[in-house]
Design goal:
Elements lengths: L5 H10 L12 E2 L2 H11 L6 E5 L5 H9 L2 E6 L5 H7 L6 E5 L7 H11 L6 E6 L5 H10 L6 E7 H7 L10 H9 E9 L4 E2 L6 E8 L10 H13 L5 H4 L8 H11 L12 H14 L3
Parallel strand pairs: 2-3, 2-5, 3-4, 5-6
Antiparallel strand pairs: 1-8, 6-9, 7-9
């Protein structure tokens, strides 16, 4: 039985009287090639642990279980528990948890599995993320310091474009800087809207976020760095001198001094700055605000 086949999905919906939830962003993949590209792109090895976000009816889970030593799938929809019990019955290396990923201690799960000896390799996170909550999930994992090698996820193409954007473009923003601070980013696949049930209004893309071992820039205070990024892009049409005024309580004159010391023209805008330039500004701000 091919779990991704539209006929299988319809059969499961009928037998379990299951209705796809728009509020949970449930869109199921119907293309085996896309599933293969996600699993291969994630680089799952036979000794690895996979943490899957939102398994749905188990399409990706099934493929990941064939490749990994262990799979732990976190699904928020209680109604999918009996469905997953059926579709994943052939795998003895899968654990399904009914929980909200935003409220789940992923590192705690990883420690439990490692102590239980279910895997000896790396930790890979993967999933087909609901469009409406993609950014909170990504940033939640990164800011909490998830102990994984990589995060391979499908998301709305527009969000993927923003995540991997470079300075100078309209898609480059705070999300680009934040994710790229924690990870290197590579695009695995483009996914047209036609391969989902129900069909969304936009196309998707699969990105692999490989977590960095260390910070890509030297920072005096990471919180100040992210505050500068937030202020800079908060009013992106403004010049840096104006958008950064008030960050850490600094006056326009003090921000002007920071920019001058960093060698950055005060009339530039945040979208033109690379990470090193943001770091130079943040370090100057941190020095002045006593942090």
């Amino acid at each position: 039985m091919k779990l991704y086949a539209p006929s299988t999905i319809r059969d499961i919906k009928d037998r379990y009287d299951f209705q796809l939830s728009k509020s949970l962003g449930q869109n199921f993949i119907t293309d085996g090639g896309v599933i293969d590209s996600i699993v291969e792109g994630a680089g799952i090895g036979s000794e690895d642990l996979v943490i899957e976000i939102g398994p749905g009816i188990g399409v990706l889970t099934d493929a990941a279980a064939d490749a990994a030593a262990r799979v732990v799938a976190v699904e928020i929809d209680k109604k999918l528990m009996p469905v997953l019990a059926e579709t994943l019955a052939g795998h003895d290396n899968v654990r399904v948890i009914n929980a909200d990923i935003l409220k789940t201690d992923i590192n705690g799960i990883i420690r439990e599995e490692r102590e239980a000896g279910t895997f000896t390799g790396d930790v890979k996170i993967m999933g087909n993320l609901p469009y409406y909550i993609t950014t909170p999930i990504i940033m939640g994992l990164l800011e909490k310091g998830v102990e994984a090698e990589s995060i391979t996820i499908m998301m709305q193409k527009e969000v993927a474009d923003r995540v991997e954007a470079s300075p100078g473009g309209k898609t480059y923003g705070a999300l680009s800087v934040a994710v790229q601070y924690y990870c290197t980013v590579s695009r695995i696949a483009q996914v047209p809207k036609e391969v989902f049930i129900p069909r969304p209004k936009v196309d998707s893309a699969v990105l692999k976020l490989s977590l960095r071992d260390s910070s890509p820039v030297e920072l005096t205070d990471k919180a100040v760095f992210f505050s500068c990024v937030k202020h800079g892009f908060g009013q992106r049409r403004k010049t840096l001198l104006n958008s950064l005024t008030g960050v850490c309580g600094l006056s326009k004159q003090q921000i002007g001094e920071v920019l001058d010391e960093a060698g950055i023209d005060p009339v530039r805008r945040a979208e033109t700055l690379d990470m090193e330039e943001f770091a130079a500004i943040a370090n100057g701000v941190a020095d002045r605000c006593g942090r």
